[in-house]
Design brief:
The chain is α+β, with helices and mostly antiparallel strands and 187 residues long. The chain contains five helices and nine strands.
């Protein structure tokens, strides 16, 4: 399957008013990420989801091992980056300084056509639950038109992961003996 690059997606949170806005990053260069996709002031944060660039790897390496152990997915970063197949690796960056703070690994058309499978969601920030929720919201927007269902692997020994996905509207499924959280993206 040929995958065409998509424009990055951005969310902005204004901490003083508690509002969140979402937009496709018009005018945003996904190859160089040289322009922030949305304005953010000192009271806000802009989160961007886009393709992983080589320059992101050094920043991710600083927090990756700790974040994946906490997420219950201790796969080495080098193994993740070198993995064969149709795995897509997306990075969450701060739209103001382009610093990577999250990583999402997914595979399209897995387990069936029109599905997306998230194998890793790793967040470095201290307010990781909020950032992880943002990452999932951005991912769902990013996948519209490419997948109608999404599933996420949930480690059985990380109970908070189950509750995280439940709060986002995902439902559990154990059809193949593993715990998956599933959500229909249409509707």
């Amino acid at each position: 399957m040929s995958v065409k690059p998509k424009m990055p997606t951005a969310l902005r949170r204004d901490k003083s008013h508690g509002t969140v806005s979402e937009s496709q990053a018009a005018g945003f260069n996904p190859q160089g990420r040289s322009e922030p996709p949305a304005a953010a002031d000192a009271a806000g944060l802009t989160a961007v989801l886009s393709s992983l660039l080589d320059r992101d790897i050094k920043g991710i390496a600083r927090w990756y091992d700790t974040a994946t152990v906490l997420a219950g997915s201790p796969i080495a970063l080098s193994d993740l980056l070198d993995s064969p197949g149709h795995r897509r690796i997306l990075v969450l960056t701060d739209g103001m300084n382009e610093a990577p703070f999250g990583l999402i690994a997914l595979t399209l058309d897995d387990p069936e056509p029109d599905w997306a499978t998230v194998s890793l969601l790793a967040i470095a920030r201290q307010d990781e639950r909020d950032m992880a929720r943002w990452g999932v919201a951005l991912l769902e927007t990013h996948l519209r038109g490419e997948a109608s269902r999404i599933r996420a692997a949930v480690p059985l020994d990380v109970g908070l992961a189950l509750y995280f996905w439940l709060r986002l509207g995902y439902r559990p499924d154990t059809g193949d003996g593993r715990l998956w959280m599933i959500r229909d993206l249409d509707g």
